[in-house]
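User: Hi! I'm working on a homework problem where we have to compare a predicted structure to a textbook description. Could you give me the structure for the chain below?
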Amino acid sequence: MHCVLIIFLTQIYPLKKTIALTLIALTIGFTATAQQTINSIEQAVLLKAETVLRLNLNQKNYYDFPVQLQKFDSLKYLSLKKNRLGEIPEWFSELAALEEVHFEKNLIADIGILNLPKLTSLHLDKNQLDTVYLVRSRLPELEELFLNNNGLKYIDQGLCKITSLKNASVAFNELKLLPNCKAFENLEVFHAENNQLLQWPFKDARMSKLKELYLNNNQINRFPSNLQHLTSLEVLNLSNNDLRQIPSEISMLKNLKILTLSGNKLENLPESIKNCDKLKHLYLVNNPISEVELKKIKAYLPNCQVIM
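Assistant: Happy to help. Predicted structure tokens:
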């Protein structure tokens, strides 16, 4: 499109005006390109720094963060997947306009102190994070946090400060406990499956917007009774834990649609489950539930598909 414009101009304007207009057209072309995703640091440095908004540096075999990144303080999207990065440098927080960051499949063992006031999405899956310290970081707008497949053993209380979280996932790690946060009022989806959790996480937290909770493949042996803050919950997966009893308070989960309890040690379910009248699918595979108890459960939930 820009080339056609330049050719047209050279035919109808005197030479000096044509040169000036050609340069303007070229500049417009550069800006438009910069607003798209740039795929190399070499290409990015040729553009005006303030126009580089999206940068994709996946699979570049980087061992260190490119220092040239420091100049792109208008950058909103950055992807550095599948490199060999070991740590996040202190200067990274100078990229204060960042909204979405992807660091999946690196060798990052320490996230350092992140001060990114506009960041909404942080992806750190498949790194080497043994511990995550967030207490000194400032991420006031963070809505998505992904820490899957890291071998994580500990997350500090700093997680509780990120009350803007909507979607968080710490699945496939080695966590035995999570910080006892009191308020995750914006959280909608939480994944903590395939860990070593011994108890229900955030048991005292206000999570009135939580819709999906995945705690399968852990070592949880007790279902909490204070469920009054989970009134929006629609999907709950507690399969392959060590549960022996479900409390009558499960009736508080008025919006529950899918409940997965397979692979536990349950012999029955409380009659109060009949108050979960929106329940459509109940999975009870590999539990020591007798035929008599199964008939009772099906009677409690006539409109629910019970899979045993």
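For your comparison, note the following. Residues 1-34 form one domain. The helical segments are 2-12, 15-34, 41-44, 291-300. Good luck with the assignment!
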